[in-house]
Amino acid sequence: STLGYKISDIVRDFLSGASDVLSRGKYLSIVTPDELNVEEFAENAGFNLVEKHFIYVHRNLTRKVSVLRK
Known about the structure:
Layout: H1 7-21, E1 27-33, H2 38-44, E2 48-58, E3 61-69
Antiparallel strand pairs: 1-3, 2-3
Helix pairs in contact: 1-2
């Protein structure tokens, strides 16, 4: 449950906080719904996209695994 918060807001805030605690050159991986534009949030938080992979769960659900580097 997201307790009524938008997933995009949760991811944006998480990446911003993670950017504050991760040292330069360190990696972070995050799993999100595939339709969420993680790349934009990551760039705004100071991360670069290294890899992304899609995991098909079932007919209406695919997850995106994004590997980011600070």
